[in-house]
Amino acid sequence: MVEFVGNDNNEDVIEEVNITNDEEETGVDDDVVTPPFVGMVFHSWEEVDKYYKRYGRQQGFGILRAAGSYVQKGGAKSKELRGYLWKCECYGRAVYRHRVEGKRVYSIRDKLCTKRSKKCDCPVLMYCNRTKDGDWVVKRAVNEHKNHCPTPRKSKYVPRYRQEDINSLVKRKMFNDYNSGANVLQIFNCLASERNEVENVTFTKKYLQNIISRDKAEKMKVGDWNAMWKYFKAMSTDNENFFHKHRVGMDNKLQDVMWVNARSRASYEEFRDVVVFDSTYLTNEYDLPFSNFVGVNHHGQTILLGCALLSHEDSETFEWLFTTWFSCMPNKKPIGFLSDQDAATRKAL
């Protein structure tokens, strides 16, 4: 970025400000960014956008790319950007929509509407135009805010700046902690302790939860069963004693699935005295009952001996489950087997 600043002798002095890679990745900028003024020159549109974003973060307000003007070049389908307008995110007024006698009505102010909006008709903006040489020149700049008072500490409430603070290193640590069993609150407190205070954290617990939820949704794009199969395959590669088996129905869709990890198989050899089977633990969004086999160790603690998702709670399904589960265990029958008083379960046993 190049800035033209007038000195005492009314001569133009060229001052070049470089944006480092660390600033681009983390969004943190220790240098003071001067406010925009008419006559500032930039080499490209990207430099203008980075500069105004840095300035908005420093002042504590969000920016929006409001509009751009194009000119045709070399044909009807070939367009070239020649001007662009950036505004404060609080520009304009909130438009409320409601119905009056069945007709949709729009109004600037509506006391009955509970909708909250950050728009307060703030006039702050910056407009740049492209020259024949390809540079971008600031043609108009308004820096005085109205109806709201941004401060540098308020930049953490702007979603754009929160996203910049969660870089690849933070995401990697967050996912590692989450996969290790830590919940979102524990992850947030750990990140806050690294920054000395919670006030220095520019993101919220809800924002971390949204990132984790989006990552789960991304993994599930190929299908829930494919994601489960990849997980089983990875577990089997990590430990050959991991056991899983499934079967499909007439329509070639997943019907029943059962899995037992290596620890459960080893625990069964020592604590097979009494096995409890529960098929009513949980019904998930797919209406598949989650069934589990549970035992008790020598400390009186419950231990998990196997899990399954079943399509039906009939004797045929339970018979397949019990036969499959017993086939992966050492060839030793349990002394006692406890279950609910269900006719299908008794018949299968």
From TrEMBL:
One Pfam family hit: MULE
Protein name in UniProt: Protein FAR1-RELATED SEQUENCE 8-like
Domain MULE transposase: from-to ranges: 274-349
PANTHER family: OS01G0519700 PROTEIN, OS09G0290500 PROTEIN
Record's signal peptide: none
InterPro entries from the UniProt entry: FAR1_DNA_bnd_dom (IPR004330), MULE_transposase_dom (IPR018289)
Organism: Spinacia oleracea
FAR1 domain sequence ranges: 50-148
Gene responsible for this protein: LOC110802141
